[in-house]
Amino acid sequence: MVQKKSTFWNMILTLTIISLTAAFILSFVEQLTEKPIKEAKNAHELDAIASVVQKFNNNPFAEKLTINVPGQKNGLELYPARLDGNINSFAIKTYSNNGFAGRIELIVGFLMDGTINNFVVTRSLETPGLGSKVNDEKFKSQFRGFNPNRQILKVRQDGGEIDAVTAATISSRAVTNAIQKAVDAYHNFHAGK
Question: Domain coordinates of the chain in residue numbers?
Fold first, then answer.
């Protein structure tokens, strides 16, 4: 077999063929995995919603609303939980970009009077063993039954009523800020703005 001479154009042709083949394979794999990834994400979010609201028998995804956040361009997602047609609670997907390691996302469940039912951290890069404790029962239990309309939703260091996780005040603040963002968005929505 005769070996082709290595020229600039031969190298460009070879690299172009390799690049196009790789792009085709990546595109095929993305199309193949897109639906299962989306379904898994939705199942994870539905589990989170189910753990923060009261019992429901509707599909919260089908009734999802986007509500405005005062002073911000992007809204938050609100998921109503209905039992036999009546809304008994709702969940709001919220976030804070002020965690120790950046963005923290959570889903907060509220009763109809605005009382917090529960919350779940759905995405966080906080330090394991420190900031990640914002998803521990000891910290979360402070929020159950907490009504931000009658109580101050801040950590104690900022004049509020929430005990921060030891050595993770920044993460604790980020969670309270994210929940307050959800409260503000709901008030804005409820007021018809």
Answer: 52-190
